[in-house]
Amino acid sequence: MSQSEKCAICDKSVNAKVDIKCDKCLLLIHSTCSGLSRTEVQCLLSKDRHITYYCVKCTEKKDEIQDLKQLILSLKSEIESLKNNTSKNQESKHEYMEEIIFEINERNLRSSNVILLNVNESNASTSDERKSFDMKKSIEIINQVADVSTQNIKCRKTNGEQDITIKYIRGIPTIVPIMESKK
Ligand SMILES: [Zn+2]
Ligand SMILES: [Zn+2]
After folding, report:
1. What is the pTM for the complete model shown?
2. Which ligand is nearest to the CA of 59?
3. C-alpha separations of 170 from 80, 105, 115, 154, 173 in Å
4. Distance 29 CA to ligand 2 centre (A)
5. What is each CA distance from 103 to 140, 164, 178, in whole angstroms?
6. What is the number of H-type helices and E-type strands within the chain?
7. What is the residue-wise DSSP string for 60-114?
8. Which among 12, 20, 132, 176 has the fewest CB atoms less than 10 Å away?
């Protein structure tokens, strides 16, 4: 007995004259196993058959392929969104690192700043004279505590402002209000 003579559903022998053939797997199926109405079976059995018939097994397979396609599509979009998230995370990590490096550099630069308080003031009449007096005094004080070159020292006198600090703005040490330096 060849396979084509058995019903694809119940595996029992079939009769090609009264049973119907699946247009996909080309196997015969008992008209009673097909789940079709008598009229539908009659249509399928007519010699000039115009409609196609897929057995239950072939229809299920078709559905499975549809499900798999759907799954692949949803996985694809999931991968895409994961990729986007990763690159966003790396971007913000990068920005964060830049901020840290900037802060470290600025602290290094600021580490050479010295603030002198309660230095005697000059009574000279011109501001240039007062500046050079401040510079002389500062160098004297620095030389008392450390043996460093005072050649490149720059002097900036405060005017009694409160809440100020030194911040590097474009590489130049600048006295700014503390609130502004936190920006
Ligand atoms: Zn059958
Ligand atoms: Zn089939």
Report:
1. 0.38
2. 2
3. 41, 12, 21, 17, 8
4. 9
5. 31, 18, 15
6. 4, 4
7. HHHHHHHHHHHHHHHHHHHHHHHHHHHHHHHHHHHHHHHHHHHHHHHHHHHTT--
8. 12
Does residue 137 sit in the same domain as residue 93?
no
Number of compact structural domains in the chain: 3
pLDDT tens digits in sequence order for the chain, 183 residues long: 444 588 988 989 998 888 998 888 888 999 888 888 888 888 888 878 788 888 888 888 888 888 999 999 999 999 999 998 888 888 888 888 888 999 888 888 777 777 777 778 888 888 888 888 888 888 888 888 877 777 777 776 666 676 777 777 776 767 777 765 554
> In this structure, what token pair is assigned to residue 52?
């196609």
What is the whole-number distance in angstroms between the Cα of residue 23 and the centre of ligand 2? 7
Does 143 fall in a domain? yes
What range defines the domain where residue 144 resides?
127-181
